[in-house]
Task: inverse folding
């Protein structure tokens, strides 16, 4: 899905007859597109009486999660391990402190590119022992061509609106004075905006992926469509209007 909404505001400054006129406009475009990635966060935890035992359990469970995610090949675009922690739990009683047990945790981040297997992956990870799952969080890639497309359409809208404005005055555009991201012409920096809107996606294909666990239920997940907003400001030279402008003495 790729729907576009564009609009802009405009203003004109007209000088003395014979001198160039200036037309300033803002061009905006909004593209609504499907997300490209779904981020999952998996936190695996352990608890044991002995520090070494807690760590060994943590290594085993971490390896299980990594093996599961990597079994999906290119469907999982990225797998990264975050912080690892093993710490004692202290029982306080009177003046003495006694270590009751040791807890461990490791954080794993995964970016899923194939949404057809996403529901299955979520179900299988959630079925693992002592695994906490968060996500999915939908997004576009940082180098997605959608951002360039939105900026291009915003510029095209600015040119079109400036031309329409000049035509309404009986003049025509002759050149570009300045083009900038919205706010920069007023020395104000504004970051690009990405908005979100819900959109349904067909259910994941049954049996997709490698080594799927038949007993694990499959979730029917609905990705969040991404709205990419681009805005530019431009100032153009234009010929003087065909009508005469009467100036006060």
Result:
């Amino acid at each position: 899905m790729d729907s576009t909404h564009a609009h802009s505001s405009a203003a004109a400054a007209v000088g003395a007859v014979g001198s160039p006129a200036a037309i300033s406009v803002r061009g905006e475009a909004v593209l609504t597109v499907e997300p490209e990635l779904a981020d999952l966060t998996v936190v695996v935890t352990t608890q044991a009486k002995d520090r070494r035992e807690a760590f060994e359990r943590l290594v085993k469970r971490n390896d299980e999660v990594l093996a599961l995610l990597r079994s999906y090949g290119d469907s999982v675009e990225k797998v990264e391990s975050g912080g690892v922690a093993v710490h004692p739990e202290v029982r306080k009683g009177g003046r003495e402190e006694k270590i009751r047990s040791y807890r461990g945790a490791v954080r794993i981040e995964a970016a899923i590119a194939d949404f057809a297997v996403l529901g299955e992956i979520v179900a299988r990870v959630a079925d693992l022992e002592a695994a906490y799952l968060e996500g999915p969080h939908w997004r576009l890639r940082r180098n997605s061509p959608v951002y360039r497309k939105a900026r291009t359409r915003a510029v095209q809208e600015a040119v079109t609106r400036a031309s329409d404005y000049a035509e309404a005055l009986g003049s025509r555009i002759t050149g570009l004075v300045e083009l900038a991201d919205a706010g920069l012409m007023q020395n104000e920096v504004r970051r690009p905006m990405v908005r979100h809107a819900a959109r349904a996606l067909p259910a994941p294909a049954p049996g997709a992926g490698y080594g799927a666990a038949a007993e694990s239920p499959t979730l029917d997940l609905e990705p969040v469509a991404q709205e990419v907003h681009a805005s530019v400001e431009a100032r153009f030279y234009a010929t003087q209007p065909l009508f005469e402008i009467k100036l006060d003495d």
Confidence is low (pLDDT under 50) at residues 12-16, 187-214. The radius of gyration is 29 Å. The beta strands are 2-13, 21-33, 37-48, 76-93, 96-112, 131-139, 173-181, 193-198, 224-238.
